[in-house]
Amino acid sequence: MASEPPPAPPAGDPAANTRRKPRSRRRRIATLVVLALALLLLLDQIGVRELSGRDFPQTDPLSPALRVHVEALAAPAWAGRVPGSEGNAAAARYLADSLAAAGVKPFPSLGGYLAPLAEPTSPLGHNVLGWIPPEGPGEPRGTVVLGAHFDHLGKTDEGLLLGADDNAAAVAVLLGAIPSLLAQHPRPYGIAVAFFNTEESPYFGTPRQGSQRFVAALPTEIGGLTSIRLAVVLDLIGGVVWRRTAETIFACGAEKTLGLPAIVDGVHEPGLDVRRLGIHAVENIPGYAPQPFSDYDVFRDHGVPFLFLSSGRTPRYHRASDLPDTLFYDRMARTSRWIASLVPALAAAPPALSFDPRGEDLAADRDTLRFAFDAAAKPWSSIPGTSPITAARILGDRSRLDAMAEPGHVWTPEDARSIERASFRLQCLLYRYPVCFTL
User: Fold this and answer.
1) The Peptidase M28 domain covers which part of the protein (predicted)?
2) Residue 279 shares a structural domain with residue 299
3) Which runs of consecutive H residues, i.e. helices, occur in 46-85?
4) Residues near 113 by Cβ (< 8 Å), separated by ≥ 6?
């Protein structure tokens, strides 16, 4: 026979009320926690959204010319400038014609602007090289290399990748700097304008990479690698997704050369915020071996002073959405003028820049990251897509960076690791990598 259920407690039974109260309290607490998290998610996105060049009208007189170059290089007809393709060859011819139109001559020893990636010819195409010889009294003081790659990926599973920011933007910025460079007299340095091919995978880091080929077969007018005063390499210089860094480019690698940080810090262009960041903070991904990102790597490997300029990856990196109308052309124009001002600043500096592969400037890294994290830690100015968990990690990053600014702080290896983790959290948020809180 089924047992009878226990009788219900009489109304107003104190014991039953006592049992119900903890359960009710837990439900209320859980509800409040869920509401608090939802509020954090909402607050995180108030006043912030992913930006692009569409949010910034063109006002700089140089911007239209830069856009013309980007639209030509990223035209669908050239299908992403894949090495070995007709689109890549057409882009190389366009760059050669652009150098000639700007008044830049080829290296006499090459007999033209196109330098094959292998001898006697290469099925992958050519680097495109121009030469602005030194001019004026006194002995020449070496060569400044201004470089950017022009190839891209083309057809992928993602669709047709045209590569406006990667890397037509950087090519356009260097072309934009040329008139000012040619107008400088005297010029104690020769200037090599190098548009590298085959930077993208699968060529990166191999002898087939365009910058590797350039270094392996320098034009005779340059001489040896020791004659290169500085290599300035640009990549991903046109994108923008966060208002805090809309006017900012990052100058990486100066810390490896004695005297170069002061030169970089001393060059100013109105409306452009150039902030130094150690190359270790770009390359040292937590949990992985250091990963170089662009054509500066071959110069560093050979002990050549280098400077890597970038505005950083955006969610459009290696995507079909990397199109000309997403770029911030006014900032690109200011970058062209900043580069043109950097070269005479080098001329005014002491003649020797000493490369130190162990060089670092953790104080500059700290200051650059504090500039970013002060805004990233505030819900109303955070990076689009910041989750509550990542926001908590950002608060920890900011606290550690602030501690590094205390008077009398003694730098430790753990500080360098904290800087690298904070830098990559910033980078992966700008790139919209989904698990930034794990870094």
Assistant:
1) 127-342
2) yes
3) 63-73
4) 95, 96, 99, 100, 106, 128, 129, 130
The number of distinct structural domains making up the chain is 2
Q: Give yes or no: residues 160 and 250 share one domain.
A: yes
Check: CB of residue 394 under 8 Å from CB of residue 377: yes
Query: Residue 405: its pLDDT value, please?
Result: 97
- CA–CA separation, 173 and 167 (whole Å): 10
Contact between residue 172 and residue 146 where contact means Cβ atoms under 8 Å apart: no
Q: Residues 232, 144: contact at Cβ < 8 Å? A: yes
Last residue of a domain, one of 306, 325, 360: 360
Q: What is the pLDDT of residues 312-344, one digit of tens each?
A: 999 999 999 999 999 999 999 999 999 999 999
In single-letter form, the type of residue at position 196 comes to F
Q: Give Rg (Cα) of the chain.
A: 27
Residue 140: how many CB atoms within 10 A of its CB?
A: 16
Instruction: Round to whole Å and give the CA distance between 347 and 349.
Output: 5
Backbone φ and ψ of 378, nearest 5°: -100, 130
Which residues constitute the domain of residue 262?
Answer: 53-360
Query: Residue type for 177, please?
Result: A
Contacts of 4 (CB under 8 A, 6+ apart): none
pLDDT at 387: 80
Q: What is the pLDDT of residue 439?
A: 62
Residues of the chain with pLDDT under 50: 1-2
Residue type, 18: T
Q: pLDDT of 43-54, one tens digit each?
A: 555 555 678 999
